[in-house]
Amino acid sequence: MNSTVKVAKRYPDVKFEHATGYKRPTDNISTYSARFYEGRHVIGKIAGRMTETNIFGYIASFPIPEVIRGINSAFLAAKSVNSNIEIKIVWVYSWYDPGREADAASALIAQGADVLMQHTDSTAPMTVAEEKGVYAFGQASDMRAWGPNAQLTGIIDDWGPYYLERVQAVKDGTWTSTDTFAGVQQGMVKFTPMNNSMPLEVREEASKAINDLSMGKIHPFTGPINKQDGSPWLAEGETPPNYPDLLAMDFYIEGIDAKYPN
User: Fold this and answer.
1) Which CATH architecture group holds 36-156+188-247?
2) If exposure means fewest CB atoms within 10 Å of the residue's CB, which of 135, 210, 230, 262 is most exposed?
């Protein structure tokens, strides 16, 4: 992000698009991100249904709001269908490190997790899940080749349509500095095919959640929700009142039994 800002100032006639950033100090920078937490809502429901140990594991990259939102969203969704669910979290402090990710997957399985999620990009956790006979979800790509039995579905970040739209805007001379935060409804968050091993009712429930998100009928963060320390965050039926409430999320929600990372 800071590098983008630095170079954009040096080349004012060039348009810069930065994924997941929030700084736009010059009028030649745009930022864009996906509502990844909507994808976590769907796979959280699946995890809550598919676990037999009532424990799912989460391999996390860096403790930034994007990742925290995903953890909270997944846990809330899983809890909504399985009141006994627990989440175990391992931080690897990397977006892509197959060795660390594999170790994290093994550590989570050793703690009883029989369903794995990841907010990292290598296929290592999926490979471990396949070898250990547990379930997992792909991240940012379809990982079925590495876990034909393990992968229940996967979250896809589809940047393509956004890129086409923004390039066309440059060609048309209509490009302006904007901030985009899109999700299932806009087609930026998609899913790989669901594993046929899942019971029909689980697949139908997940498909309904995807459809409801696409129509704007539901919000993954709908109160009542308390923060981890028990203090209120959202009242009954309330959703985050504005964009910054999500963008700056820096807390676990109530029920997550893990120390918040420093």
Assistant:
1) 3-Layer(aba) Sandwich (3.40)
2) 262
